[in-house]
């Protein structure tokens, strides 16, 4: 008998919805992307007003689970703003796939919603979440893989900044970002990915200016085989 075929996860469809302060609408719905009919894992984030706490709903009726705890912003925001992460394993998909959040607390409020598909990803192998204090370089936690994996990194800046740079190191590539905010404000966000071919322990640092803190996530997705 021959050797089993190794299935390798890969980055799939992705988009980032950004609604600015005072100009948002409810529900907040991402631009459509094409996803696989089956075999993918999906992740989506809700960054914005804490009162906009509805769960995600997508156009293929997947079951979403909140991943970890809600992370409130510090830096003088009180409890008004936070970030929530959601995941759908063994997701259904297809053409024109969208994700929506109802906004029960503040329909016109600012919100950023990254939506990412990881193809052939049956397992969330590891995840790290930390809130890095203000510095020029902000380092994530570490994730460990046992084979080929797709790594997804998310950066959420916490400063009152309208023009921001956030550049990841260690071979990560930014795929979506909202860093040049309008005068009426918005929720800063950047998404990056890296493909790794072997088992290992990985992290990412974000170099940014102006200096601020950031809520950070790092995910490692592997196939189920």
Give structural attributes:
53% strand, mainly beta, 225 residues, single chain
Kindly describe this structure.
With 225 residues, the protein is mainly β. The chain has one domain (10-222). It has no helices and 17 strands. The strands form four sheets. Strands 1, 3, 5, 6, 7 and 9 form a six-stranded antiparallel beta sheet that branches. Strands 10, 12, 13, 14, 15 and 17 form a six-stranded antiparallel beta sheet that branches. It has a three-stranded antiparallel beta sheet with strand order 2-8-4, with no helix packed on it. A hairpin with an 8-residue loop joins strand 6 (71-72) and strand 7 (81-91). The protein is globular, with a radius of gyration of 17 Å.
Tell me roughly what share of residues is in helical segments: under 10%
Q: Give the count of structural domains.
A: 1
Give the overall shape: globular
Which strand-content bin applies to the residues?
A: over 45%
Instruction: Indicate the multimeric state.
Output: single chain
Total E-strand runs:
17
What would you call the structural class?
Answer: mainly beta
Low-confidence stretches: none
Helix and strand sequence:
EEEEEEEEEEEEEEEEE
Characterize the largest beta sheet: strand count, sense, and whether it forms a barrel: 6 strands, antiparallel
Number of helical regions: 0
What is the gyration radius calculated from CA atoms? Answer: 17 Å
Mean pLDDT: 96
| Measured distance between first and last alpha carbons | 17 Å
How is the secondary structure organized here?
Layout: E1 10-19, E2 28-29, E3 40-49, E4 57-58, E5 65-66, E6 71-72, E7 81-91, E8 99-101, E9 111-119, E10 123-139, E11 143-145, E12 149-157, E13 165-168, E14 173-178, E15 189-196, E16 200-202, E17 205-222
């Amino acid at each position: 008998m021959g050797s089993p075929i190794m299935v390798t996860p890969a980055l799939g469809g992705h988009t980032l919805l950004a609604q600015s302060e005072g100009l948002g609408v409810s529900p907040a719905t991402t631009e459509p992307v094409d996803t696989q009919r089956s075999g993918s894992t999906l992740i989506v984030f809700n960054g914005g007003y804490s009162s906009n706490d509805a769960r995600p709903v997508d156009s293929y009726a997947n079951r979403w689970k909140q991943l970890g705890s809600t992370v409130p912003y510090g830096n003088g925001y009180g409890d008004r703003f936070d970030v929530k992460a959601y995941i759908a394993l063994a997701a259904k998909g297809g053409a024109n796939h969208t994700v929506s959040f109802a906004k029960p607390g503040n329909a016109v409020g600012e919100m950023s919603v990254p939506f990412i598909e990881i193809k052939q990803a049956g397992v969330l192998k590891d995840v790290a979440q930390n809130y890095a204090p203000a510095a020029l370089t902000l380092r994530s936690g570490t994730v460990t893989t046992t084979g080929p994996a797709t790594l997804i990194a998310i950066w959420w800046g916490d400063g009152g900044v309208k023009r921001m740079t956030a550049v990841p190191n260690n071979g990560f590539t930014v795929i979506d970002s909202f860093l040049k905010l309008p005068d009426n404000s918005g929720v800063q966000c950047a998404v990056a990915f890296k493909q790794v071919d072997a088992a290992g322990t990985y992290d990412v640092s974000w170099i940014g200016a102006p200096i601020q803190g950031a809520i950070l996530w790092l995910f490692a997705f592997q196939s189920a085989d």
